[in-house]
Design brief:
The complex is a heterodimer of chains A (190) and B (171).
Chain A: H1 24-34, H2 38-59, H3 64-81, H4 91-108, H5 115-122, H6 133-141, H7 144-154, H8 160-167, H9 171-189
Chain B: H1 15-23, H2 33-45, H3 49-71, H4 81-96, H5 109-132, H6 137-160, H7 163-169
Helix pairs in contact in B: 3-5, 3-6, 4-5
Classes of the chains: A mainly alpha (190), B mainly alpha (171).
């Protein structure tokens, strides 16, 4: 999927758990939720909200309320559109795209205008114990487009082709924005 | 493309260090129960279209059987055998009918599905009675009328679901 090799992490976090698109528990829960089983859908929330929220928080530039709104919108949309999911076992990837669309759609509508301007002053702090607060804040201060590409590429495991499609840009633009984001981060953190 | 492609030469930080720090960021947190509560309120208020139509179908069938049962008047003196069995079944259904809610009173998928199960049982009783006496015109009429009633209910509910109303039921 990715066309860039990321070096092995020097300090890999113990809690990195990537979504498992082929996990059969998802399929069973999706099937039950399709029949209107709210408890089953609650199981899907428990399994996936934990990795989705950090992605949305970073896409929101450190705005916790906005990230939680997006999280809720994404799950409500998922509930409504479950019948459109062809492969129940692929729920996590489908949910991720849905949530990113919610976030990017919101930003396209202009709701998140103030993030880039105010981020530095507000110095956002993640609603979880930050493994690297300086880096979190530096990401939040990135220009919106560069931040989106960086978050989707490095922290949401999406490739440039997928990012380009979901953002409505060319893959080359995605690569350029990633380069810009990384350069800015290195300058801010160096 | 590799991470070397990102090297700028003047950067104060090496790409490998940046990659390491990015990879070390928290990826998974505990999902907040408050968010689920908010989601649950919204999805319970706005049922999935599939569940809505399942509920409509269940309610319509239930309404049909309720109508049939309500039309069973005071029973004639039983003649014994199958007629007596049918009479007992009709009495049992009539006894349960007054408690059955009308379509508009179903306000949750759970209530609809419970009604659906109850109704399926009633339908099964009717069909069982017909197996014993396939030529019984009264039972056949009951079923016919129930199905017509079902169709009328579905149509009337469909008329009420204008695009505007449908949007308001969803998000």
């Amino acid at each position: 999927m990715k066309d860039m090799q990321i070096p092995v992490a020097q300090a890999a976090p113990a809690e990195v758990v990537k979504p498992a698109p082929d996990s059969s528990p998802d399929a069973a829960l999706v099937e039950a939720a399709r029949r209107g089983d709210c408890e089953a859908f609650s199981g899907l929330y428990t399994a996936h909200a934990g990795w989705l929220l950090p992605v949305l928080w970073r896409l929101a530039g450190g705005d916790r309320q906005l990230a939680e709104d997006w999280l809720q919108d994404a799950f409500v949309q998922a509930w409504r559109k479950l019948d459109q999911l062809r492969e129940p076992a692929a729920f996590s990837g489908w949910l991720k795209r849905l949530a990113v669309n919610v976030a990017l759609g919101e930003k396209r509508r202009g709701r998140l205008i103030s993030v880039d301007v105010d981020a530095e002053a507000s110095a956002p702090e993640p609603p979880w114990p930050a493994a690297d607060l300086d880096l979190e804040r530096a990401i939040a201060r990135l220009p919106a487009r560069a931040r989106q590409v960086l978050v989707l590429f490095h922290l949401s495991d999406m490739g440039h082709a997928e990012i380009a499609e979901i953002m409505g840009i060319e893959p080359g633009t995605s690569k350029a924005q990633l380069h810009r984001a990384r350069t800015l981060l290195k300058e801010m953190l160096g | 493309m590799t991470s070397d492609d990102f090297r700028t030469g003047d950067s104060a930080m090496e790409d490998s260090e940046l990659d390491g720090r990015l990879n070390a960021l928290t990826r998974v947190v505990d999902p907040a129960p408050a968010n689920w509560d908010a989601i649950e309120r919204r999805i319970r208020r706005r049922r999935r279209p599939h569940a809505i139509w399942a509920g409509i179908a269940a309610a319509a069938v239930l309404g049909g059987v309720a109508l049939v049962v309500s039309q069973i008047g005071p029973a004639p003196a039983p003649a014994g055998g199958i007629a007596e069995t049918m009479h007992a079944e009709a009495q049992a259904m009539r006894a349960s009918a007054p408690e059955l809610p009308v379509v508009s009173e179903f306000d949750s998928p759970a209530a609809l599905m419970a009604a659906w199960q109850d109704n399926q049982q009633a339908i099964a009783q009717l069909e069982q009675a017909l197996e014993h006496d396939p030529d019984n015109r009264t039972l056949l009429e009951f079923l016919t009328e129930a199905r017509m009633r079902q169709a009328r209910l579905v149509r009337s509910i469909g008329r009420n679901q204008t695009p505007t109303n449908e949007r308001s039921m969803n998000l």
